[in-house]
Design a protein that fits this description.
With 66 residues, this protein is mainly alpha-helical. It has one domain. 82% of the residues lie in helices and 0% in strands. It contains 3 helices and no strands. The longest helix is centred in the middle third of the chain and has 23 residues, at 16-38. The radius of gyration is 21 Å and the shape is elongated.
Length: 66
């Protein structure tokens, strides 16, 4: 699989239009990585769900309309 990926990258680097696409992909990846680091590098979806439920409970306590 690594050989196929390497071949594809080399083939794409010989085409000017593909260089722009690879650059855009790298920028998107860098932005996602930056967002992930800024969020504290959460691990897995289970932790994300637990964090969101915890925040939801805090909001419910603050906005208790009973």
């Amino acid at each position: 699989a690594a050989l196929v990926v390497a071949f594809t990258l080399v083939a794409n680097l010989t085409r000017p239009a593909a260089i722009g696409s690879l650059t855009a992909t790298a920028l998107v990846a860098a932005g996602l990585y930056w967002s992930w680091v800024r969020a504290g590098r959460p691990r897995g979806t289970g932790h994300a769900v637990a964090e969101s439920e915890e925040l939801e409970e805090e909001v419910d306590l603050l906005v208790d309309d009973d």
